[in-house]
Amino acid sequence: QLFEELRRLTPLSNDPTEVTAIGAVESSFKCCAGAVIVLTTTGRSAQLLSRYRPRCPIVAVTRSPQVARQAQLLRGVFPVLFHPLPAPVWADDVDNRVNFGMNIGKARGFFKTGDLVIVVTG
Q: Which of 116, 122, 111 is nearest to 30 (CA)?
């Protein structure tokens, strides 16, 4: 209900990041997701996801300590630092970060094996 109200009050956006965040939050409501995992460099994707207030936690995976600190101020966002260096192949690097976020989410009890999880890469 709050999500629908926020969508009505927010003007239509041409920003792909914001549209992706809206879609991810809407999907999380429709499929009762256990969490949203977002891979973020600047923290903006996590901020936009938080703005639309999904019912599930948002696990923000970042390599930046500053972004992780700032994300702690966002509602429902649980930032985690990913320390390993980027993999030579971009797809492998994304897989590594998503798996890291999944492991953290399970360890913190946000979801369990078999639950649906939304993954957003910005």
A: 116
